[in-house]
Design goal:
Shape: globular
Keywords: Cell membrane, Membrane, Transmembrane, Transmembrane helix, Transport
Largest sheet: none
Protein name: Carbohydrate ABC transporter permease
Distance between the termini: 40 Å
CATH topology of the largest domain: MetI-like fold
CATH class of the largest domain: Mainly Alpha
Number of strands: 0
Subcellular location: Cell membrane
Membrane topology: Multi-pass membrane protein
Order of helices and strands: HHHHHHHHHHHHHHH
Number of helices: 15
Strand content: under 5%
Helix content: over 70%
CATH superfamily of the largest domain: MetI-like
Structural class: mainly alpha
Number of domains: 2
Family: Belongs to the binding-protein-dependent transport system permease family.
């Protein structure tokens, strides 16, 4: 018995050690970026690697917050993420709720079409041609509509709706509830963990929008934050830009500050959604 307890203790120590090592490997690069963002360019070039800067400065953050390109890109990222996530979760939940009804005509065919898009997509060029034919280029709607619904999210949410007891729906219908009232007053409140989970998934995807932006947007004033981060490297590296006149000089502190300010909104939002996210992940794994 003591031998088994000793093995259990050793196993627990090993597990915690591995978790602490993995956490340190994930946190340390972010901590280094944070340290460089508060340092001077001279210290970065002379000291090389360091953890705590000797001379603390906010020049990198002040430069970015006064940069019109960064302010515009940050505003565009907020608009794309807020409107896009709301559109994603509304359309996904409505589609999943409809497909969960066994009385829906052609339900199996529609479910197969959703599953088929997980295996074979329309392709970049056909999608671009459709967006162009709808006159959506240089518009945020090109990004929102082209990524409005994720098939995997629809399938998981549909499975969750199907697992709900039919007695709840029958009792609501006996009280005179229609489909919209049933969905909004009963289904949505009971599905908040799953909805919160996929809201976080969609939010991260929209906030990190890059390829869709450079594909559908040509106006520099509409570019989101991820494109601006890429542009920082292009303008600061002559081998990439092949430009003789650099408009802006981005110091290492400014670059690291841009990374911190880009990651900060998601880091702030996640703790408020963690409870629902954990519940939704467990429900999706059990009931999916």
């Amino acid at each position: 018995m003591r031998h088994l307890r000793g093995l259990d203790l050793l196993f627990t120590i090993m597990v915690y050690s591995i978790l602490l090592l993995a956490a340190a490997m994930a946190i340390f690069p972010l901590f280094y970026v944070l340290s460089v963002s508060f340092s001077t360019e001279y210290e970065y070039l002379t000291r090389g690697f360091f953890v705590i800067p000797k001379q603390f400065t906010l020049d990198g953050y002040l430069y970015l917050l006064s940069h019109p390109g960064f302010i515009s890109a940050f505003r565009n990222a907020v608009i794309i993420s807020a409107v896009g996530t709301a559109l994603n979760i509304v359309l996904t939940s409505l589609m999943a709720y409809g497909l969960s009804k066994r009385w829906l005509k052609f339900r199996n065919s529609l479910n197969f079409m959703v599953f088929f898009t997980m295996l074979f997509s329309g392709g970049m060029i056909p999608t671009y041609l459709v967006v162009r034919s709808l006159h959506l280029l240089d518009s945020f709607w090109a990004i929102w509509l082209s990524t409005a619904i994720a098939p995997f999210n629809v399938i998981v949410m549909r499975s969750f709706f199907q697992s709900m007891p039919l007695e709840l729906e029958e009792s609501a219908r006996m009280d005179g509830s229609g489909e919209w009232r049933l969905f909004l007053s009963m289904i949505v409140p009971l599905s908040m963990p799953v909805i919160a989970t996929f809201t976080l998934f969609y939010l991260v995807t929209n906030w990190n929008t890059y390829f869709s932006a450079i594909l559908y947007l040509n106006d520099a004033k509409l570019m989101p934050l991820q494109v601006f981060l890429r542009q920082m490297l292009v303008e600061d590296d002559p081998t990439i830009s092949n430009a003789t006149n650099v408009l802006y000089k981005y110091t290492p502190a400014a670059k690291m500050a841009a990374i911190i300010l880009t990651a900060l909104p998601l880091l702030v939002i996640y703790p408020f959604m963690q409870k629902h996210f954990n519940q939704g992940a467990m429900l999706g794994s059990i009931k999916g």
